[in-house]
Every structure is written in structure tokens, then in C-alpha cells.
Amino acid sequence: MGNLVRSFVGHVRAVATGLRYLLLPNRMTVYYPEKLIELPEGYRGLIRYYPELCVQCGLCAMVCPAGAMKMYVKKGEKRGRPGVNYQRCIFCGFCADICPQNALEMTKVHDVAYEKLEDMILSPEEFAREVRSPALEEGAVKVKVIFSEERGLVHEPA
């Protein structure tokens, strides 16, 4: 009889726990694009190229393990400037790490969408444009993830 009561109490506790999480959902996701999670330092999103700093050494293209970085040589120039193929890029950051002039920077922008695969191949001129999050441009609210003793991970305005 004692085991039956303990088992019943255990089931009631389990149902109560389920109901608590049903009524107070512990939401792990955010309503994108209305909200955007503030990403941590060191996050590796799209790459930004600063042509004014580039010495055209080509190390970025040499070190790229995915073959995403390519040097484009213009007429009249002896050395090329980097462009990127985001179809191949694995966002390892080796190109930015090896650049002696810090002409490449990993941004926190990761939510850019391309309509065609060809659009993901950026020439040096396109690669030099500032990378912007479409969600932030449309007024998304930045939120940060914090730990709550009662609800676990929750989001608060950043």
C-alpha cells in the first residue's frame, strides 16, 4: 500500500511539473525578426573587408580551408584583392586571424539572405560594403540571454 501511495504522489508531482511548464513556457527561441539575440564577443558571422587596410598579400585566400576566399586581379594591378564565396565559407575566421593588417573582420551579422546562389559570391567591391542585419534595419529589438533560477534561460532587452 505504501508503494502505491508513493507512486501516486510521484505521478501527481510529474503532472504538476508538466502543467507548470505548460502555463509558464520556458521559451528558448525569440520572435525573429521582431527580436534579435545579442551575440557574444567572438561570434563569427559574415566577414567585412576593409580595402584601405589591405596590402594584397593573399594570405587570406591561401589559408582558407574551404576555398571560399579568392583573389581578384584588376587590369593594371599586379596583386589581387580578396572576394568571398559564401556558398563555400565555413566561417572559421582563419582569413581574419591571419590578415597582418586587420583588413578582414568577422562581424556578428548572420541573418542576411540571398535570392540566388550567384549572389553569394562577392567581388572585392561587394565584399567591402558594410554588412547590416536586415532585422535590425527593420527595427528589431536586441535581447540578451540571461539565466533565471525559476525559468531557466530567458531573454531580456539588451
Report what the structure shows:
The radius of gyration is 24 Å and the shape is elongated. The longest helix is centred in the first third of the chain and has 22 residues. The strands form 3 sheets. A 3-stranded mixed sheet has the order 1-7-8, with no helix packed on it. Strands 3-4-6 form a 3-stranded antiparallel sheet. It is of the alpha+beta class. The termini are far apart. The model has no long low-confidence stretch (mean pLDDT 92).
Morphology call: elongated
Which parts are unreliable, with pLDDT below 50 for 5 consecutive residues or more?
none
- SSE-based structural type: alpha+beta
The Cα radius of gyration reads 24 Å
Give the SSE order as H and E letters. HEEHEEHEEHHEE
Beta strand %: 15-25%
* Largest beta sheet: strand ordering: 1-7-8
Number of helices: 5
Q: State the end-to-end CA separation.
A: 54 Å
Q: Report mean pLDDT, rounded to a whole number.
A: 92
How many DSSP-defined strands?
Answer: 8
Q: Biggest sheet: strands, sense, closure?
A: 3 strands, mixed
Short description:
The protein is about 25% helix and about 20% strand. It is an alpha+beta fold and about 160 residues long.
What order do the helices and strands come in, and which of them pair?
Layout: H1 2-23, E1 35-37, E2 47-49, H2 59-63, E3 69-72, E4 81-85, H3 94-98, E5 104-106, E6 121-122, H4 124-127, H5 134-137, E7 141-148, E8 152-157
Parallel strand pairs: 1-7
Antiparallel strand pairs: 2-5, 3-4, 4-6, 7-8
